Each structure stands twice: as structure tokens, then as C-alpha cells.
Amino acid sequence: MSRRMIRRVLCLCVIGVATAACMALPGRQVAVFQEPPLPMKGTIPLIAGLMTLEDARPVDERRAMRDIEKLPERVTLQILIDWKDANLFRQLNHVSEPQGADVILKGELRSFRWKPSYAWLPYIPALGTLAAFGVPVAYSDDAVEIALDVIDPKSGQAIASYTKMAQSHHSYWVYRYQDFTAGDDRQTNSAFRQVADQLQTAMLGDRERMVAAVKPAAR
């Protein structure tokens, strides 16, 4: 092999290694919770109290997500922020006791998975430049399931109950996650966001039933 050819091969290897060094998936916490705002679809004219979701995940899922501490609390906080931004209720607060509100939202986090995988081709030194031409360098699969009850704090009875679940698959390109928190780089169709949106839609569909249950005079 000529010296010129050797230089070319070495150059390709260096470029490939440099490119691959940039190709690391965002941290799991960033990837899971970097969400755009939920759309405003309507408001339920009640004061709601959201209790921290109970952790009902299988043991293997808890082990796989150890890097995110207090995951149920983190999920509850994100849902609280999402629904407040979307004006889902006239007022929404985090509460520790099922009292002090027109309705209480109480539920379980039954499943929460986020699994990354890497495409092997762009990580071969001589082929690392493929990432620059739009070849995906990594993928992720996520799944979420949340069960939620809307409870009348006076009677302790459930007004409505929901169980929502979703799955999603995402591809990552080297250009997308260099600045993963910017603009369109945020996960717009993650399983977590789908579930939050599904619960929002379901509760809005039961708006009249909720109001009638806790404020009979308003019927």
C-alpha cells in the first residue's frame, strides 16, 4: 500500500473516531423529560390536588432506571407542570393528603422504560463520516403506563378512573443531539408525553361529570 493511500486511510480513521466521539446519546433523564408544552384543550373549572404517584413498576424496571432518583416524584412533578401550563384545571396543586381541593388526582406509575441502542455502522472508524450524511447513530425505545383516579375528597369515592399507556421509538442523528435541549430537538412524541396528553383529553371528556359530582348545585 502506498504512503498516500495509508495517509488517506489514517485520515478517514481519525475523522471517524472524532465523529464517533461526539455520538453519545443524551442522558436518560434529559431524553425522557425534555418535553415541549402540552396543547391547551380546555379547562375544568375545579381546584385539583395531585398526589405523588405510587411506584407500582415491576422490579426489573426499577433496577433498569436506577440512574433517575425518585422517579415517581419526578414523573409527578413533570405532569404537574404540563397540566398547569395547559390550564387543565382552574387551579392545580401538589398535595400530600386527599383534602383541601374539589377533586384529588391519585394514581400509580405502573411502567416506565427507556432503552437506548446504538447503530453499529457509523461507529466503525473508517465509516464514521456516514453520520454526517444523516445515517442514524442511535435509537431509543420507551414505554409508559399510568393509572389515575379522580376522587371526591368528601366521599372518598372515585368519580372517574383511567389507565393510559403508550410506546414510542426514536432515531438520533449526530446533528440532533449536539444541542438536544434546543427547539425541535425535544422529544415531541415520547411515550411519557403521549400518556400525559391522553390523560388530559380523558379528564376533559369527563369535565361535566366531575363538576356535577362535587358541585351538585352547578347542574
Helix coverage percent of residues? 25-40%
Distance between the termini: 87 Å
Task: Count up the domains.
Answer: 1
Which CATH architecture would you pick? 3-Layer(aba) Sandwich
The number of helical segments is 6
Work out the strand percent: 25-35%
Described by its quaternary structure, the protein is single chain
Give me the CATH fold name: Rossmann fold
Overall shape: it is globular
Q: How do the SSEs run, as a string of H and E?
A: HHEEHHEEEEHH
Radius of gyration: 23 Å
Explain this structure to me?
With 219 residues, the protein is an alpha/beta fold. The chain has one domain (3-218): Rossmann fold. Helices cover 32% and strands 27% of the residues. It is built from six helices and six strands; from the N terminus they run H-H-E-E-H-H-E-E-E-E-H-H. It has helices spanning 3-22, 28-33, 59-64, 71-85, 191-205, 207-214, and strands spanning 44-50, 54-55, 89-94, 103-118, 138-151, 158-172. Strands 1, 2, 3, 4, 5 and 6 form a six-stranded mixed beta sheet that branches. Strand 5 and strand 6 form a beta hairpin. Residues 8-25 and 175-186 have low confidence and may be disordered.
Keywords:
single chain, 219 residues, alpha/beta, Rossmann fold, 6-stranded mixed beta sheet, 6 helices, 27% strand, globular
Short description:
This protein is of the alpha/beta class and about 220 residues long. The protein contains six helices and six strands; from the N terminus they run ααββααββββαα.
